[in-house]
Design brief:
This protein has 336 residues and is α/β, with parallel strands linked by helices. The chain contains 12 helices and 9 strands. Bound molecules: phosphoric acid mono(formamide)ester (CP).
Length: 336
């Protein structure tokens, strides 16, 4: 690690502490983060935001490194924020898209990854429709860091960090605060990763939506043992779920992950489950609205609410850059 310039001492101290605690080259899911590590990553994101939000910086620890964005599924915010994050930290960024690449001639994922690594990639940012793909590629990687930018229905750890950071920025202490997550829970990798981070930070998570979208197993079994049963509630009545909510997070109906025709009639969904002004009134006054994006406008959320004063949706996007910078720097690498 380069010796820090004076003003970056705080950032460098946080990075060194994260390196010693995480001790990993990769960032595959939030399940490596307990409350202490998660809080450190959030603090690092905050310090980076303070330094970088005016875009003038001389802190380029990734200068000369190559960051490869490999997106096998479409993306706007994750792909672009990794590109900006890499560039702000001084890295060269290359973007791979399946279309026009040799995967169209039948080249396998593993061979593609080996090729990208041989070309000199120090970071491989991967989004893939198959759950577990980022884990599989770490087995063939020699020195690159692999970062999961969303794998199938499994995990979306960088979005979860972004959401946790954005909430901490607005609510400060998340202990005992109530978040209601509404909609297509079963197909949501964002939900899985968010459940881990938000409960780890002490939030109470209420899950609601049509029966066919809800898990039918004990979610606490997928979480660390210190998470209390009472922190997670499945509520089948949206009105009841919204009572006293501090935060409401509707999720996108993931049409691409439903195996058969969507049973849920969208008109019925909108009339019963859409978050709109009337439903918002059931929550606490000034309850915050979040959405990891992209939004099916007019389906899970009324379009007017997306840009309302209570909405943090664009803040989530903005913070994604700083959180992804923190994640890149948390990977244990020789930056010298
Ligand atoms: N939230 C999220 O992953 O958005 P993108 O698909 O646009 O990256």
């Amino acid at each position: 690690m380069k010796m820090p310039e004076q003003e970056y001492t705080k950032i460098n101290k946080l990075i060194l502490k994260l390196h010693s605690l995480l001790n990993t080259n990769h960032f595959l899911d939030v399940d490596i983060l307990d409350k202490e590590k998660l809080s450190l990553l959030i603090n690092l994101s905050k310090e980076i935001k303070l330094q970088f939000q005016n875009k003038s910086n001389a802190f380029t620890p990734l200068k000369g490194k190559i960051l490869a964005n490999l997106f096998f599924e479409s993306s706007t915010r994750t792909r672009l924020s990794f590109e900006i994050a890499g560039k702000l930290l001084g890295a060269h960024v290359i973007n791979f898209s399946e279309k026009g690449s040799s995967t169209e001639k039948g080249e396998s994922l593993i061979s593609t990854i080996q090729t990208i690594e041989s070309l000199g990639a120090d970071f491989i940012i991967i989004r893939h429709p198959d759950s577990g793909a980022p884990y599989a590629i770490t087995k063939t990687i020699i020195k690159s860091s692999v970062i999961n930018a969303g794998d199938g229905q499994h995990a979306h750890p960088t979005q979860a960090l972004t959401d946790a950071f954005t909430l901490k920025e607005h609510l400060v202490n998340l202990e005992g605060k109530k978040i209601v997550i509404v909609g297509d829970i079963n197909h949501s990798r964002v939900f899985r990763s968010n459940l881990w981070t938000l409960t780890s930070l002490g939030m109470n998570v209420v899950i609601t939506g049509p029966q066919e979208f809800l898990p039918n197993f004990d979610l606490t079994k997928t979480l660390p043992s210190n998470i209390k049963q009472k922190q997670i509630t499945i509520e089948h009545d949206l009105e009841k779920a919204l009572e006293n909510a501090d935060v409401i997070m509707p999720l996108r109906i993931q049409k691409e992950r439903h195996l058969s025709t969507l049973n849920q009639n969208l008109k019925t969904y909108v009339s019963k489950w859409q978050i709109n002004e009337t439903k918002l009134k059931l929550a606490k006054t000034n309850a915050l609205i979040m959405h990891p994006g992209p939004v099916n406008e007019g389906i899970e959320i009324n379009t007017n609410l997306i840009n309302s004063p209570q909405s943090l949706i664009q803040k989530q996007v903005e913070n994604g850059v700083f959180c992804r910078m923190a994640i890149l720097l948390s990977c244990k690498k020789d930056f010298s």
